[in-house]
Amino acid sequence: MSLFTKKNLTKVEAWKARNGLKILRVSLGFVFLWFGVLKFFPGLSSAEMLAGRTIFKLTFGFISPELSMPLLAVWESIIGIGLITAYRLRIILLLLYFQMIGTFLPLIFFNSETWTNHLFVLTLLGQYIIKNIILISSAIVIGATSNGGALISDPSVAEKAQHLQLLNSSFRRRFDTDPSQNVQTNKLSNSSF
């Protein structure tokens, strides 16, 4: 009996669709919590000096690296805990997006340390920064489904769901209202008779 039968693969895909977003959210939270906690202990984080210098330059020397590291540690730890627990996810993702903007600034502020002499060739430090695109992409997927959306493994069901979503957005644009609120209003007005 083959492990890779269509039935087994469908079950695996369905499991991934059911659990993939939660796994993505928790693992992203774990990464942020880990990196945040490291910043509480001077000398443990490999990004400590770069982050401190970036914040110092960004704030025109107002916030020193000695002050910025504990602040950044708290910020990243809050993001991590928020992602793991899914508490106030929209606010947590907003914090994440702002933090990610800061992570890309060394590419501009310290370009001699992040770029080589060749066009589009990054140093190891630059590569460390660029990988944050994956973290941002993960946050976008989590954010897109934070209002109850889901991954759908069945292509025919996904196609129908996409069609309904397009109809819903078309309805909103045309009538400047949410169709689900319209249905609830109609149910209330029908029940009063």
Write the layout of secondary structure elements.
Elements: H1 6-38, H2 48-58, H3 65-85, H4 89-104, H5 106-109, H6 111-114, H7 124-130, H8 132-144, H9 155-175, H10 179-191
Helix pairs in contact: 1-3, 1-8, 2-3, 3-4, 4-8
Number of helices in the DSSP assignment? 10
- Oligomeric composition of the shown chains: single chain
Instruction: Bin the helical content.
Output: over 70%
Biggest sheet architecture: none
pLDDT < 50 stretches: none
Strand content: under 5%
Q: In total, how many beta strands?
A: 0
User: What structural class do helix, strand and pairing data support?
Assistant: mainly alpha
Element string (H = helix, E = strand) = HHHHHHHHHH
Mass-distribution shape:
globular
Radius of gyration: 23 Å
Distance between the termini: 61 Å
Tally of domains: 2
Mean pLDDT: 86
What does this structure look like?
It is a single chain. With 193 residues, this protein is an all-alpha fold. It folds into two domains: 6-153, no CATH class; 155-193. The protein has helices spanning 6-38, 48-58, 65-85, 89-104, 106-109, 111-114, 124-130, 132-144, 155-175, 179-191. The termini are far apart.
Brief sketch in words of this structure:
The chain has 193 residues and is mainly alpha-helical.
What tags apply to this protein structure?
2 domains, 0% strand, mainly alpha, 193 residues
